[in-house]
Hints:
Blueprint: E1 3-5, H1 13-19, E2 24-28, H2 36-43, H3 46-58, E3 59-61, E4 65-69, E5 76-78, E6 83-86, H4 88-101, H5 107-134, H6 142-156, H7 161-176, H8 194-208, H9 215-219, H10 224-244
Amino acid sequence: MKFILTLFIGVSISLLSATVSANLNTEWLTPKADNKAIKQALETSIVFQNAVDLINQKWQLEDDILLSMGGDEDPYYDPETSTIYFSYYFADEIGERYKAEHPNASSAQRDRFIVSGVVHTLFHEYAHVLVDYLNLPVLGREEDAADSFASYVLLTLMDNGASILRDGANLFYLESLDPEPFDEAMLSDSHSLSIQRFYMGICHLYASDETAYQSLIKTHDFDEEWTDTCLMDYDIIISSWQALLTP
Length: 247
């Protein structure tokens, strides 16, 4: 089998780290001059490293997976090379979108948003890794399933994951503001529309704690039918991923 699920109930994270060898290995490519700050923000981020550590603690595969930070590629997983690719330009674009929407934000706030966007995307891409290595069944589009996996991990397995999910959803919202004309080609893309991905992330966030995120209903003018559907969908994704990843 390609997969060994490591589950230690009641065992500390430090002990878990000591008993499991690394599987997701990060390489940091040399950045161009305009990407040096982005590389530094990511490479020194405790949140980013915690995300990588969480993957290595929870899922061990037959082969090492390379997380290649740098290069020119948009984020994607290549099954031929067992590599997840990220470009510094992708992270820089996250920062530019945030800065355009929040011109008075501090550099620390911008960096936090960048890290959240990258971490959310990392879990999305790692879902493709698990589908590939474990031959997981996917009912519906794999990209939608990968989004739901990111929500599952952030809301059930990672400290401060809810705030990361909220930033990830807000990134989709910022992407939906692009002035590009809507055309039919967008409907044939493997991903849902950015605005749909935003609402799905917000749905998962709300359903994870109705009391804490009650304000989202008013902010986005959600009706009772939406909230009922949202709660049902959230229960489905959580139970589905738990069933798939439990031996």
